[in-house]
Amino acid sequence: MNRLPVTIVISALNEGKSLAETINSIGATTDLPQEIVVVDDGSIDGCCDELPNNVNTSPMNIVLVTQKRLGISGARNVGASIAKQPFLVFLDAHCLVHSGWLASLVDVIETGQQNIVGPAVRDRNEPDYIGCGARLVGRELRYEWNPVQNKYPTEIGIIPGGCMALSRELFENIGGFDTMRHYGFEDVEFSLRAWRLGTRLLGVPASRIEHWFRTCQPFEVPYASFTYNAIRTAVLHLTGERLKDTLHALSRHPDFMPQMIDLLSGDIFTKKSVNDHRACRDIQEYFAAFG
Predict the structure, then answer these.
(1) How far is Cα 134 from Cα 240, in angstroms, rounded to an integer?
(2) 10 Å Cβ neighbour count for 212?
(3) DSSP states of the chain as a string?
(4) Considering only CA atoms, which of 215, 188, 212 is closest in space to residue 72?
(5) 1 — pLDDT class (breaks 50, 70, 90)
(6) What is the pLDDT of residues 95-144, one digit of tens each?
(7) Which domains does the chain have, with CATH numbers?
(8) Which residues, including other chains, have CB under 8 Å from residue 236's CB and lie 6 or more apart?
(9) What are phi and psi of 3, to 5 degrees?
(10) How far apart are CA 48 and CA 40, in angstroms?
């Protein structure tokens, strides 16, 4: 049994039995993390209440943090802040992992400390479909999964947030997840910011997990928050006609104007200035490579 210098951060909100299933699948593999940090982001279904009793905790150190709801970005940042290991894996609370998944990710990170990596992901509802990394499509910053084309690590445009891994040092240098609301676009914004800072985003087909892509979330996701996060991501990273086209597409949402006003009244200009000052790659190059 291989104990790897990894902290797995799992944010949980009304996950039911899925959280225990996810942790048990980790414990059943041959490549275990040193610790798992579970951040209970305001659950009301008791999914974390019996955590030490309903999972196989013997081979792993499990740390539980309970808090009022911050949203997935805030919960992950809290988990990362108390992680003790040099490598971080952010994993959704409704995944099943297989032996070799974690070692394969760590191996690729260790080839370059400026790497963020993600596994090949099988849809638990459609087992025949497997994607590895994603690319942006359309004008509203949505993404679609890339098909698995070979067995080697491949540069990709988006590391989907269901599972992403990187060194803790790199995570801190990038600045953690942005202050998104509730749920949505945190992985897109993080991927764009990381790429602009010179980070390589890599899909690792040798690492395989299964993810439950839910059609209905077990918690409230105000659509206004989703719109706010999309606008925030666009303003932080896009320029010129691409920014204009994206905002025009988003303006069709009925809550666009109040969310735009709210955004412009906050920290967006300070954040954008910092991002632009630190960036070493132009966003136009990104879309030339992955658009």
Answers:
(1) 24
(2) 17
(3) -EEEEEEEEEEESS-TTHHHHHHHHHHTSSEEEEEEEEEEES-SS-TTTTHHHHS--TTSEEEEEEES---HHHHHHHHHHH--SSEEEEE-SSEEE-TTHHHHHHHHHHT-TTEEEEEEEEESSSTT-EEEEEEEETTTTEEEEEEP--SS-EE-SB--TTEEEEEHHHHHHHTSS----SSSSHHHHHHHHHHHTTPEEEEEEEEEEEE---SS-SS---HHHHHHHHHHHHHHH--HHHHHHHHHHHTTSTTHHHHHHHHHTTTHHHHHHHHHHH--S-HHHHHHHH-
(4) 188
(5) low
(6) 999 999 999 999 999 988 789 999 999 998 888 889 999 999 999 999 99
(7) 2-211 (3.90.550.10)
(8) 178, 189, 192, 193, 268, 271, 272, 275
(9) -95, 115
(10) 7
Residues 10/91, Cβ–Cβ less than 8 Å: yes
Look up the pTM and report it. Answer: 0.95
Q: Are strands 200-211 and 154-155 parallel, antiparallel or unpaired?
A: antiparallel
279 neighbors 236 (Cβ within 8 angstroms): no
Cβ-contact 109, 26 below 8 angstroms? no
State the residue for tokens 């919960």.
75
Q: What is the mean pLDDT of residues 168-183?
A: 95
